[in-house]
Design goal:
The protein is built from 19 helices and 26 strands. The protein has about 650 residues and is an alpha+beta fold.
């Protein structure tokens, strides 16, 4: 049986459909302009599916255009972790859900008022939306049929995940007018060198589609045409991908990148940098010395008694009249940390060694959590820290998008200040007791392209204006971009972990990153690897007014039960140094006792690892991780109860020695 009936059925539901090649996910050659041609018109659909000469039905698969919809694509094939990410993101099967031929899911949600781009929602979950498509039920790939798993009405997209959505990549209107001649020898050589030495590889399960798009865009920036780019990628890049792309599929991805890239072709070339620039000699100028009529004069350095002390609010985390940015992934605790700061400021309490210089009131606006949810967290924080909630409530104002609409800039490609909303905020901040304004997430405070540095410099400038005019410390939170595949921990303590343009961290005076403990942290601090996500590290990504240094601070997730029965997760301080010392002493003591009990002065490393794995907790650790931990512990001899334990290399093997 053909697929025409299924295509018409989906069209009646309001989905714009178009034909895909038989036994394929690729658009049919009969419908090359599918982003425009996709339709619900039954006559047009029949004209595609029915041969006008023979009258026979073509065996097309069905694509439906996802423009106007938001469709998370949960991938599970070949060991992918889509279902795991599904649970971690808090998604639920409460909307129209389609089962793919490979066992994955397409969840169909209603679209938002703004267009949404094709970007990963999490590991092995991509978003299909503006100018994208998915294969519709009724289609067949290699004998396996796409079906409907749950026939429910499309639901609203979850509010708590909207901050992860990105704007669509727009077609570059200026590309065709560029006067740069592509494929010049030096351009090709530069692109080839970058592919050999720096280009990230596409790894299945690690956002390989996005990596491929970025690589193709970069080659385009070098001034290389799409045809030459395909040759270069097939020869120098594709063989190292895991797995390599099929040449036809790679060509399609390159064509998409060249079609929707956001900068003109050849934008990274020297010619582009100076295109249209005429350098002329300046006219003769008479230079005047002295202070009269100019801002340049000597002797204007302020005396030390005339310089005001920097107006820190909470240690060097919050500085009055400036912006602090907290950068982290979803669920890391960004919103919670802002509430914790508000509680400490309300009571004048120091936080993790950061002195509370300016106790006072805080306004906390959260576009993702309503006031009841924020209230639960505030109560849980006070219980966890032993604070009086009744005193805290007097000095904290909780606001959500349910109470007020808050957009700092007007919509459009060229933003301007939304004076109604900004002035309302500044007027509220005239209360001299207000010391902190927490707004977030950043993506919900504007409707501009966050990858456009000029635009985001403007948006961040509005935050600075609010901080200065309101005489408060402003803090906002923002999601991370995807970490480099070769070094996933590279975003820790890195201000450029922030998603979008570099203007976002550049405009903040303080940038903090929040991440779970790494495997190396577990080795250093004696944290069981399986528990590492319980521990959160706070690192400095940028601090403009204090010296650099290693200042990682640690917190641990703790579940707090409220009087109404709700369980709420709270971050509480965690002494990694002290715990690590205790764990190290315990580990060393166990090994010393074992060596002494056998009447010996030494023990081979392999035997020591076997003894450690008798411990119920350590038994669950990977042996290589345990070995690394032991080697780091014994980089220097450890003293326990007057006995010294050291690691000695003899006869090409490691031994533990007591003395």
């Amino acid at each position: 049986m053909g697929t025409l009936a299924a295509a018409l059925a989906w069209a009646r539901r309001g989905f714009r459909v178009f034909p895909l090649e038989e036994n394929s996910k690729l658009p049919s050659g009969d419908c090359p302009n599918w982003t425009v041609a996709a339709t619900t018109d039954p006559d047009i659909i029949r004209s595609w599916w029915v041969d006008s000469v023979t009258g026979f039905e073509r065996s097309y698969n069905i694509g439906f255009l996802t423009t106007g919809w938001i469709v998370p694509d949960v991938d599970t094939k070949r060991g992918k972790q889509g279902y795991k990410t599904f649970g971690e993101l808090g998604l639920e099967l409460d909307t129209l859900t389609l089962l793919t031929a490979s066992g994955g899911l397409h969840l169909v949600f209603k679209g938002l008022s703004r267009p949404v781009g094709q970007a990963p929602l999490g590991r092995d979950i991509d978003i299909r939306s503006h100018n994208g498509y998915v294969v519709a039920p009724g289609s067949i790939i290699d004998g396996k049929r796409y079906t409907v798993l749950l026939d429910l009405p499309p639901a609203e997209f979850p509010v708590h995940l909207r901050g992860l959505l990105r704007e669509p990549r727009q077609r570059d209107a200026g590309t065709s007018t560029s006067s740069i001649e592509l494929d010049q020898p030096e351009f090709i050589e530069l692109a080839a060198h970058w592919l050999r030495t720096q280009a990230p590889r596409a790894i299945e399960g690690q956002n390989g589609d996005d990596a491929t798009y970025r690589v193709a865009c970069r080659i385009r920036d070098f001034g290389v045409s799409a045809d030459v780019a395909l040759d270069l990628l097939l020869e120098l890049w594709n063989p190292a991908c895991e797995p390599p792309w099929d040449p036809a599929e790679l060509q399609r991805k390159i064509e998409n990148a060249y079609r929707y890239a956001t900068s003109p072709a050849g934008s990274s070339t020297a010619q582009a940098a100076f295109e249209g620039v005429n350098l002329v000699e300046p006219p003769g100028v008479r230079y005047h010395h002295g202070p009269n009529g100019t801002p340049y004069h000597f002797g204007n350095t302020l005396a030390i008694g005339e310089i005001e002390t920097r107006p820190f609010v909470l240690g060097n985390l919050l500085l009055n009249r400036t912006v602090t940015a907290i950068v982290a992934g979803p669920g890391a605790g960004k919103s919670l940390l802002k509430l914790i700061w508000a509680v400490h400021l309300a009571l004048g309490k120091d936080f993790l060694g950061h002195k509370c210089y300016r106790p006072g009131k805080s306004i906390v606006f959260d576009a993702e959590d309503d006031v009841p949810e924020q209230s639960r967290r505030l109560h849980a924080i006070c219980i966890a820290f032993g604070f009086d909630i009744n005193e805290v409530r007097k000095r904290v104002s909780l606001v959500s998008s349910n109470e007020i609409m808050l957009q700092l800039t007007t919509p459009g490609p060229t933003p301007t200040i939304n004076f109604e909303h900004v002035n309302r905020l500044i007027e509220t901040l005239q209360d001299p007791e207000i010391v902190m304004l927490a707004l977030g997430p950043l993506a919900e405070l504007h409707s501009s392209n966050e990858n456009d540095n000029i635009v985001m410099r403007y948006v961040m400038g509005v935050l600075r204006i609010i901080a200065q005019k309101g005489d408060v410390a402003v803090v906002t939170d923002h999601h991370t971009s995807k970490p480099p595949m070769a070094a996933p921990d590279a975003w820790i303590g890195n201000q450029y972990a922030a998603r979008g343009g570099t203007a976002i961290p550049a405009a903040a005076r303080r940038v903090l990153t929040l991440f779970s403990a790494t495997e190396q942290d577990c080795i250093d601090a004696g944290i069981p690897t399986k528990n590492r996500r319980e521990f959160v590290r706070i690192d400095s990504g940028k601090r403009s007014y204090s010296p650099p240094g290693e200042d990682t601070q640690w917190m641990q997730w703790r579940s707090i039960k409220l009087w109404n029965g709700d369980d709420v997760g709270v971050l509480v301080p965690y002494d990694v140094t002290g715990k690590a010392k205790d764990a190290s002493s315990s580990l060393a003591g166990l090994l010393i006792d074992s060596i002494k009990n056998r009447g010996s002065a030494s023990m081979p490393m392999t035997e020591a690892l076997g003894i450690l794995q008798l411990d119920p907790i350590l038994a669950k650790e990977d042996r290589s991780v345990l070995k690394n931990r032991l080697e780091r512990l014994l980089q220097e001899p450890v003293q326990v109860g007057g006995t010294e334990l050291s690691l000695v290399r003899t006869n090409n093997r490691y031994e533990l020695v007591v003395s």
